[in-house]
Amino acid sequence: MTINHYQKRYDEVSLSREKVFRDPVHDYIHIRDEIILSLINTKEFQRLRRIRQLGTSSYTFHGAEHSRFSHSLGVYEITRRIINNFQRNFPKSINHPDQWDDRERIVALCAALLHDIGHGPFSHTFEGIFQTDHEAMTRAIICSPETEVNRVLRQFDEYLPEKVASVIDHTYPNQQVVQLISSQIDADRMDYLLRDAYYAGVSYGKYDLTRILRVIRPYNYQIYFDFSGMHAVEDYIISRYQMYMQVYFHPVSRGMEELLSNLLDRAKYCYKEVPETMQTPIDLLTPFLAGDWSLEDYLFLDDQVLSSYINQWQKEKDPILKDLAYRFINRHPFKSILVADDTIEELKIAAQQVFTANGYDARYYFGENSSFDTPYDFYKPYPTSTKTQIDLITKSGQIVELSQASLLVSSVAGRERGDHRIYFPREILVTIRQKDAADLSLAERMINDAYQAETKDVTHQIQQRLF
Ligand code: NI
Known about the structure:
Blueprint: H1 3-12, E1 14-23, E2 27-33, H2 34-40, H3 43-46, H4 68-89, H5 105-114, H6 123-130, H7 134-143, H8 148-156, H9 160-168, H10 175-181, H11 187-200, H12 209-215, E3 216-219, E4 222-226, H13 230-248, H14 251-273, H15 286-289, H16 295-299, H17 303-313, H18 319-329, E5 335-338, H19 344-357, H20 362-365, E6 367-370, E7 391-393, E8 399-401, H21 402-405, H22 407-412, E9 415-418, E10 420-424, H23 426-434, H24 442-456, E11 463-466
Parallel strand pairs: 4-7
Antiparallel strand pairs: 1-2, 3-4, 5-10, 6-10, 7-8, 9-11
Helix pairs in contact: 2-5, 4-5, 4-11, 5-9, 5-10, 6-14, 7-9, 11-13, 14-18, 17-18, 19-24
The structure holds nickel (II) ion.
Nickel (II) ion binds at residues 71, 75, 115-116, 188, 192.
């Protein structure tokens, strides 16, 4: 496609008057392109209103009920502001590596808006049980001719669906566009930190977005930051670190996740092995329980569908399904204790003995969760498959990697911090703790000791790993 043709299309499809959406984080989301408004109005994008951004975190931070819809608009808005800045300050003259080619504008904005379109309800837990994959679903929703999203993209340019999908999976040739949507400091992370902090009601995730938008720039076919903005970028990295430690890795949210995972696993078991115990119609979930589902089936799922089935399962005949559903709906998360790497195996065996002795089926009343397995985002100061370091550029053109310039960032760079926990019903611990020490079995004593160690010694609560 030639430049002129692209430009002509672009002017043709601008809205006669800009539209705005009011947003608590960015004030206004500005929309000038008809294609963006049309994408927002598709049924696949509207579905994101019914999927919470943070899944089970709202059971710990009750304000955090915001949707993937609002996050996606936020990522679009940040991308739009960055691109407008690039176009004002770094407009491209023929193929220059330090400038921005505004013909990429529509691809970048569509990718920003659609980057999470494939997420389902309680994404990570659901994916673990039903073998779905939100990244594959994102590509399917964008590229499959049966979706409204695909139709809107194709009407603009028949190659646009493939271009947008390739930005999201990092294979798009222009790496500036890819890095705007996905890198160590991209529009996705910039939005979710502010948004999640705002809705969770914590102040950790705040940083100076306005300043970052001022110092971000295209350079050497990639995205860099002016050295003068070092402290704003540093603040963003530290905010992100604190949000992970305080909000995303919260042990109670993970306890709800473990509960949900066992609950869905039990529903799958009942459906297959004892179908007569499943009395309630659960048509929208059936294809997933049966392991034979289509894109259309996937698009019918959302948090409300799943929550209403779980609510109904409280009335089912199967005692385990019924009990786990009751615990989930009424927020009785599994209790956790921290385990050290060297004792995990024997503690797991001990825990299972205790559960069985107390009449619990360990397959459904035990969970193991390591925050190291949760999708994390600490700062890596060296490149892996995509650009993972943040580079600053001085006035004289010298390039400095962020952790070399910032004392604070150097203290968190290249390290993962997290913890490994086992989860089980709280009443098991209560029973153990009510017994005389002399009456405890060996297995019960191990659980009790692990619990005591956590409450007495805070120094071993956080493990650290280098990567
Ligand atoms: Ni996102």
